[in-house]
Amino acid sequence: PCLSTGVCDCPYGWTGDSCEFAICFNVAANDASVCGGKGSCIDIDRCQCNAGYSGTKCSDYSCFGVRSNSTTVCSSHGVCLSPDKCQCALTLEKGFWNGQQCDSCKLPYTGVKCNTIPQTDKCQDDVTCFGHGKCNSKGSCVCTGNFYGTNCNGCKTGYYGYDCNVYCDPKITCSGNGYCDSILGGVCTCNNNLSNGYFTGTNCNKCQSGYYGKKCSTQILGPPIVSNLGNSMTLTITGVYSKQNIPCSRILTTPSVERTTVVENLLLNLEMLTIFLQENQQSYLELTC
After folding, report:
1. 27, 39 in Cβ contact below 8 A?
2. 233-250 pLDDT tens trace
3. Is residue 27 included in any domain, yes or no?
Protein backbone atom coordinates (compact mmCIF):
# COMPACT_ATOMS: atom_id res chain seq x y z
CA PRO A 1 0.00 0.00 0.00
CA CYS A 2 0.95 3.61 -0.50
CA LEU A 3 1.28 5.65 2.70
CA SER A 4 0.04 9.21 3.04
CA THR A 5 3.63 10.42 2.69
CA GLY A 6 3.75 9.03 -0.86
CA VAL A 7 6.06 6.21 0.17
CA CYS A 8 5.23 2.56 -0.52
CA ASP A 9 4.84 0.28 2.47
CA CYS A 10 6.37 -2.84 0.94
CA PRO A 11 5.29 -6.36 1.93
CA TYR A 12 7.82 -8.66 3.55
CA GLY A 13 10.63 -9.59 1.21
CA TRP A 14 10.37 -6.58 -1.12
CA THR A 15 11.92 -3.13 -1.15
CA GLY A 16 12.45 -0.09 -3.40
CA ASP A 17 10.47 3.04 -4.20
CA SER A 18 7.84 0.89 -5.91
CA CYS A 19 8.60 -2.34 -4.04
CA GLU A 20 10.24 -3.62 -7.22
CA PHE A 21 13.27 -5.31 -5.66
CA ALA A 22 13.16 -8.69 -3.98
CA ILE A 23 15.25 -9.27 -0.85
CA CYS A 24 17.53 -12.29 -0.69
CA PHE A 25 18.79 -13.11 2.78
CA ASN A 26 18.48 -9.49 3.99
CA VAL A 27 20.17 -7.99 0.90
CA ALA A 28 18.15 -6.15 -1.76
CA ALA A 29 18.30 -7.34 -5.36
CA ASN A 30 19.86 -4.04 -6.51
CA ASP A 31 22.73 -4.34 -4.01
CA ALA A 32 26.02 -5.42 -5.62
CA SER A 33 26.65 -7.82 -2.74
CA VAL A 34 23.37 -9.71 -3.14
CA CYS A 35 23.81 -13.49 -3.45
CA GLY A 36 27.42 -13.04 -2.39
CA GLY A 37 28.08 -10.90 -5.45
CA LYS A 38 28.00 -14.12 -7.49
CA GLY A 39 24.42 -14.13 -8.71
CA SER A 40 21.07 -12.35 -9.01
CA CYS A 41 18.15 -12.19 -6.59
CA ILE A 42 15.14 -13.22 -8.67
CA ASP A 43 12.62 -13.72 -5.84
CA ILE A 44 12.45 -13.62 -2.05
CA ASP A 45 15.49 -15.58 -0.76
CA ARG A 46 15.99 -17.11 -4.20
CA CYS A 47 19.34 -16.57 -5.92
CA GLN A 48 20.16 -17.37 -9.52
CA CYS A 49 23.90 -18.07 -9.45
CA ASN A 50 26.52 -17.12 -12.03
CA ALA A 51 28.27 -19.88 -13.97
CA GLY A 52 30.53 -21.91 -11.71
CA TYR A 53 28.69 -20.99 -8.50
CA SER A 54 25.91 -22.80 -6.68
CA GLY A 55 24.18 -23.03 -3.31
CA THR A 56 21.42 -21.06 -1.62
CA LYS A 57 23.56 -17.90 -1.47
CA CYS A 58 25.82 -18.74 -4.47
CA SER A 59 28.71 -19.32 -2.06
CA ASP A 60 29.66 -22.79 -3.31
CA TYR A 61 32.24 -23.36 -6.06
CA SER A 62 35.00 -25.78 -6.97
CA CYS A 63 38.50 -25.94 -8.41
CA PHE A 64 38.94 -28.72 -10.93
CA GLY A 65 36.17 -30.83 -9.44
CA VAL A 66 37.11 -30.31 -5.77
CA ARG A 67 34.98 -28.08 -3.52
CA SER A 68 36.66 -24.84 -2.47
CA ASN A 69 36.45 -25.68 1.26
CA SER A 70 37.90 -29.16 0.90
CA THR A 71 41.30 -29.87 2.48
CA THR A 72 42.38 -31.48 -0.80
CA VAL A 73 41.51 -28.54 -3.07
CA CYS A 74 44.41 -27.27 -5.19
CA SER A 75 46.30 -30.48 -4.33
CA SER A 76 46.27 -29.34 -0.66
CA HIS A 77 48.92 -26.77 -1.59
CA GLY A 78 46.86 -23.64 -2.11
CA VAL A 79 43.45 -22.01 -1.91
CA CYS A 80 40.61 -21.99 -4.42
CA LEU A 81 39.89 -18.30 -5.08
CA SER A 82 37.15 -18.79 -7.69
CA PRO A 83 35.98 -21.57 -10.01
CA ASP A 84 39.07 -23.40 -11.34
CA LYS A 85 41.45 -20.72 -10.09
CA CYS A 86 43.99 -21.85 -7.50
CA GLN A 87 46.44 -19.60 -5.68
CA CYS A 88 49.42 -21.74 -4.68
CA ALA A 89 51.27 -21.58 -1.38
CA LEU A 90 54.58 -19.71 -1.47
CA THR A 91 55.97 -20.01 2.04
CA LEU A 92 58.77 -22.02 3.62
CA GLU A 93 56.29 -23.70 5.96
CA LYS A 94 53.76 -24.75 3.30
CA GLY A 95 56.17 -25.02 0.40
CA PHE A 96 56.65 -23.19 -2.89
CA TRP A 97 54.16 -24.64 -5.37
CA ASN A 98 53.29 -23.99 -8.99
CA GLY A 99 50.88 -25.13 -11.70
CA GLN A 100 47.14 -24.70 -12.29
CA GLN A 101 46.40 -27.17 -9.51
CA CYS A 102 49.50 -26.40 -7.40
CA ASP A 103 50.90 -29.87 -8.05
CA SER A 104 54.52 -29.06 -8.93
CA CYS A 105 57.42 -27.23 -7.29
CA LYS A 106 58.20 -23.66 -8.16
CA LEU A 107 61.80 -23.52 -9.41
CA PRO A 108 64.35 -23.81 -7.99
CA TYR A 109 62.66 -25.56 -5.03
CA THR A 110 62.66 -29.33 -4.84
CA GLY A 111 61.62 -32.09 -2.46
CA VAL A 112 58.38 -33.69 -1.33
CA LYS A 113 57.23 -30.44 0.28
CA CYS A 114 58.78 -28.18 -2.37
CA ASN A 115 60.73 -26.31 0.28
CA THR A 116 64.18 -27.87 -0.16
CA ILE A 117 67.01 -25.73 -1.43
CA PRO A 118 69.26 -27.33 -4.07
CA GLN A 119 72.67 -28.10 -2.57
CA THR A 120 75.73 -26.59 -4.23
CA ASP A 121 79.37 -26.56 -3.20
CA LYS A 122 79.63 -22.85 -3.85
CA CYS A 123 77.31 -20.02 -2.88
CA GLN A 124 75.41 -18.76 -5.91
CA ASP A 125 73.24 -15.65 -5.89
CA ASP A 126 70.47 -17.15 -8.03
CA VAL A 127 70.46 -20.59 -6.42
CA THR A 128 71.70 -20.39 -2.83
CA CYS A 129 70.16 -16.97 -2.22
CA PHE A 130 67.22 -17.56 -4.59
CA GLY A 131 67.96 -14.32 -6.40
CA HIS A 132 66.96 -12.38 -3.28
CA GLY A 133 70.44 -11.66 -1.99
CA LYS A 134 74.16 -11.68 -2.70
CA CYS A 135 76.85 -14.15 -1.64
CA ASN A 136 79.49 -12.59 0.59
CA SER A 137 83.15 -13.59 0.94
CA LYS A 138 82.23 -16.20 3.55
CA GLY A 139 79.83 -17.95 1.20
CA SER A 140 76.73 -16.70 3.06
CA CYS A 141 73.76 -14.84 1.68
CA VAL A 142 73.21 -11.16 2.39
CA CYS A 143 69.53 -10.59 1.71
CA THR A 144 68.13 -7.61 -0.14
CA GLY A 145 64.81 -5.81 0.26
CA ASN A 146 62.47 -7.40 2.78
CA PHE A 147 63.77 -10.94 2.33
CA TYR A 148 65.06 -12.85 5.30
CA GLY A 149 66.65 -16.16 6.25
CA THR A 150 69.83 -18.15 5.61
CA ASN A 151 68.87 -18.48 1.96
CA CYS A 152 66.76 -15.30 1.67
CA ASN A 153 63.67 -17.38 0.96
CA GLY A 154 61.47 -15.91 3.67
CA CYS A 155 60.01 -12.48 4.41
CA LYS A 156 60.76 -10.19 7.30
CA THR A 157 58.05 -10.01 9.95
CA GLY A 158 55.04 -8.12 8.65
CA TYR A 159 55.89 -8.59 4.95
CA TYR A 160 54.19 -10.99 2.57
CA GLY A 161 54.00 -12.02 -1.04
CA TYR A 162 56.40 -13.72 -3.43
CA ASP A 163 58.48 -10.52 -3.54
CA CYS A 164 58.01 -9.73 0.17
CA ASN A 165 56.75 -6.30 -0.85
CA VAL A 166 53.33 -6.34 0.80
CA TYR A 167 53.19 -5.00 4.35
CA CYS A 168 50.34 -6.11 6.58
CA ASP A 169 49.70 -5.60 10.28
CA PRO A 170 46.47 -7.21 11.51
CA LYS A 171 45.87 -4.44 14.06
CA ILE A 172 46.44 -1.62 11.56
CA THR A 173 46.00 -2.92 8.02
CA CYS A 174 43.08 -5.17 8.99
CA SER A 175 41.71 -2.71 11.60
CA GLY A 176 41.92 -5.41 14.28
CA ASN A 177 39.00 -7.18 12.57
CA GLY A 178 40.89 -9.86 10.66
CA TYR A 179 44.29 -11.37 10.00
CA CYS A 180 47.01 -11.14 7.35
CA ASP A 181 46.66 -14.21 5.14
CA SER A 182 50.11 -15.48 4.14
CA ILE A 183 48.69 -17.77 1.44
CA LEU A 184 46.92 -14.83 -0.19
CA GLY A 185 50.10 -12.74 -0.10
CA GLY A 186 49.33 -10.58 2.93
CA VAL A 187 45.75 -9.69 2.01
CA CYS A 188 43.43 -9.20 4.97
CA THR A 189 40.99 -12.01 5.64
CA CYS A 190 38.19 -10.43 7.65
CA ASN A 191 36.42 -11.91 10.66
CA ASN A 192 33.30 -13.78 9.64
CA ASN A 193 31.62 -15.16 12.75
CA LEU A 194 29.30 -14.09 15.56
CA SER A 195 32.03 -13.93 18.21
CA ASN A 196 34.33 -11.59 16.27
CA GLY A 197 31.81 -9.92 13.94
CA TYR A 198 31.08 -9.96 10.21
CA PHE A 199 33.47 -7.54 8.52
CA THR A 200 34.38 -6.79 4.93
CA GLY A 201 36.48 -4.37 2.89
CA THR A 202 40.16 -4.24 1.98
CA ASN A 203 40.96 -3.17 5.54
CA CYS A 204 38.11 -5.03 7.27
CA ASN A 205 36.68 -1.69 8.40
CA LYS A 206 33.11 -2.16 7.17
CA CYS A 207 30.24 -4.39 8.20
CA GLN A 208 29.08 -7.04 5.77
CA SER A 209 25.76 -6.18 4.15
CA GLY A 210 22.94 -6.74 6.61
CA TYR A 211 25.11 -6.46 9.75
CA TYR A 212 25.35 -3.44 12.03
CA GLY A 213 26.89 -2.15 15.23
CA LYS A 214 30.44 -1.40 16.32
CA LYS A 215 31.25 -5.11 16.27
CA CYS A 216 29.27 -5.83 13.07
CA SER A 217 27.57 -8.71 14.85
CA THR A 218 23.96 -7.52 14.90
CA GLN A 219 21.57 -8.47 12.12
CA ILE A 220 18.06 -7.18 11.44
CA LEU A 221 15.72 -9.72 9.84
CA GLY A 222 13.09 -8.13 7.66
CA PRO A 223 12.10 -4.45 7.54
CA PRO A 224 11.24 -2.50 10.73
CA ILE A 225 7.48 -2.46 11.36
CA VAL A 226 5.89 0.72 12.72
CA SER A 227 2.63 0.28 14.63
CA ASN A 228 -0.63 1.71 13.27
CA LEU A 229 -0.60 4.38 15.97
CA GLY A 230 2.97 5.28 15.11
CA ASN A 231 4.08 4.96 18.71
CA SER A 232 6.20 1.82 18.53
CA MET A 233 8.51 -0.05 16.18
CA THR A 234 9.05 -3.80 16.04
CA LEU A 235 12.46 -5.15 15.00
CA THR A 236 13.67 -8.72 14.79
CA ILE A 237 17.32 -8.66 15.82
CA THR A 238 19.82 -11.52 15.88
CA GLY A 239 23.32 -11.57 17.26
CA VAL A 240 24.05 -10.61 20.82
CA TYR A 241 20.39 -9.66 21.05
CA SER A 242 17.48 -12.05 20.57
CA LYS A 243 14.05 -11.09 19.15
CA GLN A 244 12.92 -7.85 20.75
CA ASN A 245 10.09 -5.39 20.57
CA ILE A 246 11.71 -1.98 20.94
CA PRO A 247 9.31 0.61 22.45
CA CYS A 248 9.18 3.98 20.75
CA SER A 249 10.41 5.63 23.93
CA ARG A 250 13.77 3.93 23.38
CA ILE A 251 14.16 5.01 19.75
CA LEU A 252 16.11 8.24 19.34
CA THR A 253 16.45 10.04 16.00
CA THR A 254 18.91 12.75 15.13
CA PRO A 255 17.99 14.86 12.06
CA SER A 256 21.53 16.19 11.63
CA VAL A 257 22.94 12.84 10.51
CA GLU A 258 22.83 11.73 6.89
CA ARG A 259 20.31 8.97 6.24
CA THR A 260 20.66 7.06 2.98
CA THR A 261 19.07 3.68 3.68
CA VAL A 262 16.63 2.32 6.22
CA VAL A 263 18.58 1.45 9.35
CA GLU A 264 21.85 2.40 7.66
CA ASN A 265 23.67 2.73 10.95
CA LEU A 266 22.76 0.86 14.10
CA LEU A 267 24.44 1.57 17.43
CA LEU A 268 23.59 -0.90 20.16
CA ASN A 269 24.38 -1.29 23.82
CA LEU A 270 22.50 -2.61 26.80
CA GLU A 271 20.78 0.67 27.57
CA MET A 272 20.00 2.34 24.28
CA LEU A 273 19.05 1.61 20.71
CA THR A 274 19.64 4.43 18.22
CA ILE A 275 18.31 4.10 14.68
CA PHE A 276 18.89 6.55 11.84
CA LEU A 277 15.90 6.39 9.52
CA GLN A 278 15.54 6.78 5.78
CA GLU A 279 15.58 10.20 4.19
CA ASN A 280 12.63 10.87 1.87
CA GLN A 281 13.71 13.74 -0.38
CA GLN A 282 13.67 16.70 2.02
CA SER A 283 11.84 15.00 4.86
CA TYR A 284 12.50 11.97 7.00
CA LEU A 285 10.49 9.64 9.17
CA GLU A 286 10.48 10.83 12.78
CA LEU A 287 8.50 9.11 15.50
CA THR A 288 6.71 11.19 18.12
CA CYS A 289 5.95 9.29 21.30
Report:
1. no
2. 555 556 544 334 444 444
3. yes
